[in-house]
Design brief:
This protein has 215 residues and is of the alpha/beta class. The chain has one domain: 3-Layer(aba) Sandwich (Rossmann fold), CATH 3.40.50. It is 40% helix and 13% strand. The chain has eight helices and six strands; from the N terminus they run βαβααββααβαβαα. The chain has a six-stranded parallel β-sheet, with helices on both faces. Helix 1 links the parallel strand 1 and strand 2. The relative contact order is 0.16. The chain binds flavin mononucleotide.
Length: 215
């Protein structure tokens, strides 16, 4: 691992959709990017609920292998505890290309919009905004309350990309992973990373579906 690495920070908060986080991290690693990972306290519950995986700070590399379904022995990933305000991503002087919060709970959306910094995930997002680096917030909730919509508007005004976990169907998905990868691909588009995670709109009705699934 290079000493001058400049990672993307990935924050996993306690919203449903652990698979979205896994797809984004896998795609970043596949693209040769470094990842700094922050798992919120509540995300441990969603990870446990959705994967049956107890996230352990002391064994995070093994747990990451389960989360990502890949060998992580040499993966360029660093994790930071959600309660560690002395962690690198807590400071604007720590090098980072940007941050993705995926999935983002409405609580995290609120905390980031209001600058609460109640844990390292929210602090790192606040730092990303203040340093004018790309911040993508992948909110996962439905329906939305008025306050969540106001918080999303605040994030947009502050320069973040509000990118709901909200897949399209024009590429004719037949597997859940294709829906997950659609969202992950949009996240990578938002931070300027080339990817072919989903079949793009071709400018003609049905063409993307045919390209993805055949005639
Ligand atoms: C299994 C489970 C699923 C949840 N799913 C969502 C969700 O989809 N969206 C959401 O906003 N909150 C969801 N929550 C509630 C959040 O975890 C809760 O608001 C928490 O305070 C979020 O904290 P965090 O943003 O610090 O991770 C869920 C909680 C659990 C236990």
């Amino acid at each position: 691992m290079s000493s001058n690495r400049t990672p993307f920070i990935v924050g996993i908060s306690g919203a449903s959709g652990t698979a979205y986080a896994a797809a984004v991290i896998n795609a970043l690693l596949d693209a040769g990017e470094s990842v700094d990972l922050v798992v919120s306290k509540s995300a441990r519950l969603t990870i446990l609920d959705e994967l049956g995986l107890s996230w352990r700070d002391g064994h995070w590399r093994e747990d990451l292998a389960v989360l990502l379904d890949r060998d992580t022995a040499n993966a360029d990933v660093v994790t930071w505890s959600a309660g560690d305000f002395a962690a690198g991503p807590s400071s604007g002087s720590y090098p980072a290309k940007g941050m993705v919060v995926v999935p983002a709970s409405t609580a995290s959306v609120a905390g980031i919009a209001m600058g609460l910094s109640k844990d390292l995930l929210q602090r790192a997002a606040d730092v990303t905004l203040k340093e004018r680096r790309p911040l993508v917030v992948c909110v996962r909730e439905t329906p939305f309350t008025r306050s969540t919509m106001e918080h999303m508007l605040t994030l947009d005004i502050s320069g973040a990309v509000v990118l709901p976990c909200n897949p399209a169907f024009y590429h004719g998905p037949t597997h859940v992973q294709q829906l997950v990868d659609f969202v992950a691909g949009k996240v990578l588009d938002a931070i300027g990373i080339d990817n072919d995670l989903f079949t793009r709109w071709q400018g003609e009705l049905g063409a993307a579906r045919k390209a993805a699934t055949g005639p």
